[in-house]
Amino acid sequence: MFKILSNKDNLQVIYEDNHIILVNKRAGDIVQGDKTGDKPLSDVVKDYIAKKYNKPGNVYLGTVHRLDRPTTGLVIFSKTSKALPRLNKLFVSKDISKTYWALVKNKPKKEADTLIHWLKKNPKNNKSTAYPKEVAESKKAILHYRTLKKLDNYYLLEINLETGRHHQIRTQLASIGCPIKGDLKYGFDRSNKDASISLHARNIQFTHPVSKEDLNITAPLPKDAIWDACL
């Protein structure tokens, strides 16, 4: 497990070298700019790099992937134009292994299972719907989960994705009656105090795009009594 290298300006840097930087995203942060006009995490990371290395002018930073705004956990950014296409290729070829933790309301019928659905996104309400069979404009979604722990009122699930669809984990878990804690959009009955949902990108494993070193990086959980009970 990697220690937090920097925790300044609410930016948790978990890993950094000349080519890549991994941060532990907070709930509420947006990875890239959107119509809200809020400052995105990418700009926060650029500011951090500019300040740390005393870089004048524009700082290069490539966004490799995203996390939903209310979700927490690991996000990879590229610091060089050499690393970015190689990281993109790793994602396309599925040579990056991402593990998520989720707190859900109800006990799944099976302790571990593979979920296969067809997801259709509705841009008007920014929500996806899961179907058991293919429908028009739907995309196949596959995830694997296992139950790690029973808490007093929740269940901790570990999730590995085979596909990366819009709101995939949130939609598929809701479809089996296990909405994620705090996720009002997908059926949980109340929000979390910080407007987060209890879905955390916990671990990433991949081969470094330049050095070829095998990396296995774990992000600390959010500061919360229920998350603390998971450890």
What do you see in this structure?
- With 231 residues, the protein is an alpha+beta fold.
- It contains four helices and twelve strands.
- Strands 1, 2, 3, 4, 5, 6, 7, 8, 9, 10, 11 and 12 form a twelve-stranded mixed β-sheet that branches.
- A hairpin with a 4-residue loop joins strand 9 (139-150) and strand 10.
- The longest helix has 12 residues, at 41-52.
- The two termini are 14 Å apart.
Alpha-carbon Rg, integer: 18 Å
* Integer average pLDDT: 94
Distance between the termini: 14 Å
**N-to-C order of helices and strands:** EEEHEEHEEEEEHEEH
Q: Considering DSSP H and I runs of 4 or more, what fraction of the residues is helical?
A: 10-25%
* Continuous helix count: 4
From the helix content, strand content and strand pairing, which structural class follows? Answer: alpha+beta
Percent range for β-strand residues: 35-45%
Global outline: globular
Number of strands: 12
Biggest β-sheet: count, sense, barrel?
12 strands, mixed
State the low-pLDDT regions, or none. Answer: none
